[in-house]
Write a structure and sequence with these properties.
heterodimer, A: Rossmann fold, Rossmann fold, seven-stranded mixed sheet, 13 helices, 40% helix, 20% strand, disordered N terminus, B: 274 residues, alpha/beta, two-stranded antiparallel ribbon, globular
Chain lengths: 328, 274
């Protein structure tokens, strides 16, 4: 586990913003020039997902299947059957939202080399409302054998994970958020591997294990808690399946208290995955921050995070609780 | 005109295939004889006449691909693959049993199987992926997809129908096993498919209608599909569910029911399959 990740302090962090979709699109276009086997399948949202960057560079390897997600996913499976590394992308509400059967039977069961990358996951699609706010994707994808699940925290890690996925044969799902978000990584030496994680801040009193945009909230929470004398370890758990059990257990042993944070239903997501490891091997105090089994609504992303209890202050509250309980 | 000797050879293989289907399904005690029997000639003509393939080298890059989208016809596919030499005929006795390479619906445990079928409506899309990859790689292999007619009620088939035309996939041939029957009854009463030819034509496919038991018509249709350029071809093969076993013919009941083991020799004798 690397703990020497260069990470900027809160104020600086907020100044340098990135965009996961730009990271995805640019990395994909770069990957396309390195590897001729890479093909990209879209479902009408290719400008938004920025896979169009790949499409402009390699039109013969780019297939826009239109508003037909099940078809797009299955065509990607066929391309992979013929030896291609097939990336297929749209909004998470539609892939995996609309085609779990095709992902299960056409991709995961035959263990094909298809990389599903979905944007606008969680509440981050904001004003579009509940129909578009996919808060179940980690749970559905995690429950399918052979499928790996990734949730990068910023543009830089998104970029890196595109290459990581391509190097590892087999199905993989990566969820991205819509809004621009603080760049958390600046060091090119950071390791990104499927099944691994990164400690962004070390601490002894509690471990905050987060994924996606919630990693940034977790870092903010850690800043606040530091002022109260609570020392937080913040782990970017970008690989949710397989999950970095060693890092989780070490954190549970070192701190005795774990808080998870994700922009996903509290059922079946990162919190559940961490709880499975903690409960089976090293039970300790635990709290999960996530959407509490409810549908969202229209609103700005930040307003929604506040209403559904996913802000840094909610993490702060959960940490105080577990730290208090631990002392009893 | 095809040589009559070749037709006789194919007919003999079809006869043996029907027998293997009945025997293996009866031995398994479950399975789908009706939809397996209806498409025998269509698949036999592919594996024993039309397709370029090598049972000794199932993953040969230049082989033609066959996708059984109606995965419940697994006993048909297995009977054909075994006869072609992909695995020993004895394996057929293990169909649907624990530890068998022959799963209830086809998967990659079986040499020669190209696609894990079972969930209806997906196979044509997968075939598109294969056909696109062939064009991309400059390869001349062809992709054949066998669809059930009931399967055409799945909306994804029509998503695929649109996409295959967009990409001018003349290396892709869809075959519809038009036996008119699905699990609950007649397709035309459950959810009507007609006018079926007009539907495919409206999607701009090249459409050929044939008698699904006439080897000459079947092979002519495969050849015509191969010669058709710039668009995909669909062959609507008129068939009979349960074909060859009198009491199974036209019977929805035999969609997913196995004959009893003790009935087998009587059935085969009556049908002249022994």
């Amino acid at each position: 586990m690397e703990s020497d990740v260069q990470m900027s302090g809160t104020r600086e962090r907020k100044r340098v913003m990135g965009d996961m979709r730009t990271g995805y699109g640019e990395a994909l276009a770069e990957l396309g020039s390195i590897n001729k086997d890479v093909v990209v399948v879209g479902a009408d949202t290719t400008q938004s997902l920025k896979t169009s960057l790949f499409g402009h560079k390699f039109p013969e390897r780019f297939f826009n299947i239109g508003i037909a997600e099940s078809n797009a996913v299955s065509i990607a499976a066929g391309l992979a059957l013929a030896g291609k590394i097939a990336f297929v992308s749209t909004y998470a509400a539609f892939i995996p939202g609309k085609c779990v059967d095709q992902i299960r039977n056409a991709i995961a069961y035959p263990n094909l080399n298809v990389k599903i990358v979905a944007s606008h996951a969680g509440l981050s699609v904001g004003p579009d409302g509940a129909s578009h706010q996919q808060v179940e994707d980690i749970a559905t994808m995690r429950a399918i054998p052979n499928m790996r699940v990734l949730a990068p925290a910023d543009e830089y890690s998104t970029r890196r994970l595109v290459f990581t996925m391509a190097e590892s044969s087999g199905p993989c799902y990566m969820r991205l958020a819509r809004p621009k978000s603080p760049l958390l990584y600046t060091n090119g030496d950071v390791r990104f591997a499927i099944g691994s994680s990164n400690i962004l801040r070390d601490g002894n009193d509690v471990a905050i294990i987060a994924c996606g945009l919630m990693v940034s909230e977790a870092l903010d929470a850690a800043d606040t808690l530091a002022e109260e004398g609570i020392s937080c370890r913040v782990i970017d758990m970008y690989s949710i399946k397989p999950i970095d059990s060693d890092a989780i257990l070490k954190a549970a042993r070192d701190t005795g208290a774990v808080v998870t944070a994700e922009e996903h239903n509290i059922f079946g997501g990162l919190g559940s995955a961490v709880a499975e490891v903690v409960c089976e091997h090293n039970p300790c105090m635990m709290k999960r921050i996530g959407v509490k089994d409810t549908f969202g609504e229209s609103g700005e992303h930040d307003e929604l995070l506040a209403k559904y209890g996913l802000k840094a202050r909610d993490i702060v509250g959960a940490v105080r609780e577990v730290v208090r309980a631990k002392k009893r | 005109m095809m040589q009559s000797q070749e037709i006789l050879r194919l007919k003999e293989i079809a006869r043996r295939t029907r027998r293997l289907i009945i025997e293996s399904v009866a031995e398994a005690g479950s399975g789908h004889p009706g939809g397996s029997l209806s498409a025998v000639e269509l698949v036999v003509a592919l594996y024993f006449h039309k397709m370029r393939h090598d049972p000794k080298n199932p993953r040969w890059e230049d082989r033609d691909r066959f996708i059984l989208s109606k995965g419940h016809a697994a006993p048909l596919l297995y009977s054909v693959l075994a006869q072609a030499g992909y695995f020993p005929l004895e394996e057929l006795k293990t169909l649907r049993k624990m530890g068998s390479m022959l799963q209830g619906h086809p998967d990659f445990r079986t040499p020669g199987v190209e696609y894990c079928a079972g969930s209806e409506g997906i196979g044509l899309s997968v075939g598109i992926g294969l056909a696109l990859a062939a064009k991309l790689d400059g390869k001349d292999y062809r992709t054949y997809v066998l669809l059930g007619d009931g399967e055409l009620q799945e909306g994804q088939v029509w998503e695929a129908a649109m996409a295959a035309v967009k990409y001018r996939l003349d290396n892709l041939t869809a075959i519809v096993d038009r036996n008119g029957i699905q699990q609950d009854g007649l397709t035309e009463s459950i959810m009507p498919l007609e006018p079926l030819e007009a539907k495919w034509k409206a999607f701009n496919w090249h459409v050929i209608q044939i008698d699904g038991y006439d080897f000459e018509q079947i092979i002519d249709a495969y050849n015509e599909a191969e010669q058709t350029i710039n668009r995909p071809t669909v062959i609507i093969a008129h068939t009979t569910k349960g074909k060859g076993i009198s009491f199974m013919e036209w019977s929805p009941q035999w969609h997913g029911q196995a004959p009893k083991k003790e009935q087998v020799s009587k059935i085969l004798e009556e049908m002249g399959l022994l």
